[in-house]
Amino acid sequence: MAQRMTEARLPWPRTWSFHSWGDVRGLDRAISTLRFPLMIKSRYSHRGDLVAKVHDVEQLQALAGQWRHEPFILQEFVRGDGWDIKLWVIDRQIFAARRRTPLDANAPQEDVPMPIETLPGDWRSVTLEIGRVFDLRLYGVDLLVTEQGQGPLVVDVNSFPGYRGVAGAASALITLIERLLEERQVTV
Q1: Residue 12 burial (10 A CB sphere; 0-12, 13-18, 19+)
Q2: Among 12, 18, 32, 132, whose CB has the most other CB atoms within 10 angstroms?
Q3: Does the predicted TM-score (pTM) go above 0.70?
Q4: Which residues contact 122 (CB under 8 A, 6 or more apart)?
C-alpha cells in the first residue's frame, strides 16, 4: 500500500512493513538508524489491535516482542492537531467525522460528524483518489492535519471499514448493492 501511495504522490508518511518481529531481529542496526518517535500498528485492523507511539528502539522491541506473531508496520510519526479525520466512502459518496487522537488515552473516542460540505476540497480529492488508485468502492481513510495546520496527511486506508454509527451509510450501501445487482443482470 505504501508503495502505491507514494507512486500516486498521495500524502503518506514513510512506512515499513514486517510479517512478524522475526523479520526485524536481523535488522536491529537498520532500525537503530530510524528517526524516533515512530508509530507501530497492526497490519490488519481488528479490535484491540496494536497502535502505539514508540520513542526508542527499546520501546519498539518491547512492543514488538509482545506482538511477536502479529504482522505490523512502522510509520513515521507526524504530530497532528489532536484530531483524526475519519472518512468512509461508499461508491464515491463520502461520510466524515472527527475523533480525538487514539494517542491520548483519556480523550473521548466518540465520533463528531462533519457535514461533507464543510470538508476542504483537497481532503475530498485525496480521499477519492485513493479509491481510484486502489480500485475501491468501499473504504475508509484516516487523515491528519499537522500542528502547523498542514494536511491532509493520509495515515491509514481500510479496504472495508465498519460503518456502524455513520449516518446515511446503510442506505448508501443498499443503493450500491442494488446498482451492482442491476449491472450484473445486464451483463448476464
Answers
A1: buried
A2: 12
A3: yes
A4: 152
Report pLDDT digits (tens) over 107-151: 888 899 999 999 999 999 999 999 999 999 999 999 999 877 778
Instruction: Phi first, then psi: give them for residue 55, nearest 5 degrees.
Output: -100, -15
Can you point out the beta strands (E) in 58-152? Answer: 72-76, 80-90, 93-100, 112-114, 138-146
Q: How many CB atoms lie within 10 A of CB 141?
A: 26
Q: What is the spatial distance between Cα 120 and Cα 107, in angstroms, rounded to a whole number?
A: 25
Residue 33: all three cell numbers together: 538508524
How far is residue 149's CA from residue 151's CA, in Å, rounded to a whole number? 6
* Helix %, strand %, coil % of the chain (to 5): 35, 30, 40
Q: Are 119 and 130 in contact (CB under 8 A)?
A: no
